[in-house]
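User: What would this chain look like folded?
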Amino acid sequence: MLKSLVKGSILGLYAALFGILLLLAFVITHQMTHYISWPIAGVYRYDALLAYALLIQVFLVYYKLETPREAWVIAIFHAMAMLMELFLTHPKIGSWHYPEQAIFRIANVPLFAGFMYSAVGSFLARSLRLYQASFVHLPRLKWLGLLAVLSYANFFTKFFIPDIRNILFAASVILFFKTRLLFSIDKKQYQLPFLPLLLGLAFIVWLSENIATFANIWRYPSQADIWHMVGWGKLGSWYLLLTLSLVLVLAVMGKRDDAGNWRLH
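Assistant: Here's the prediction, encoded as structure tokens.
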């Protein structure tokens, strides 16, 4: 059991490789500011992070550590994330801001920003493959798709009409209540109820967000003068974003049968 737990943890870290490498770069480049000033040789910190993220992707694909389908998921996430970032960082919305300069940017958003969301999609896609995961009692993809579309739309519409996140939380509980995740470690199969796992992943992403804001990658208005931990309310936002991410990954990476079982292609 202990051996399987250790190997399972290693697989999890391997699945999160892209995100871990990004977080390390955030912290290291932030610590560098105590000794040197950006830009370095005319290169701003955010632009260096963009080049770094692209190099990671090239490395992973070239050495077949990431499949073309996983790279496709990352590209979709980057595009969707940039659209959301452009809206939420607009001066009239101001949900958060990027405090440093960048050459490669669109409006207020440095181009590397989309890769932070892509890291979530990369982790989900790689986890399904590395753990040889499947689902039982998975809701129909049309209902999951509707939940994902409404979750994504709510990030925009909540500024103009009532926030429906509580309805979306309740809908996700109803949809995933019976869903179980099956996965393999050392050729032994295990299963877990999916809802607690999804909430646990949202908590991990929330912790990562705290590291990123501490490293001055972005800041919320309340963190403008001094850094403090991100509020617990953001945990719900990450939960909804993970739901959106999961639906996209499931649609691209596998197929659901009429009995509610989902498997990788």
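The chain has nine helices and seven strands. If you want, I can go into more detail on any region.
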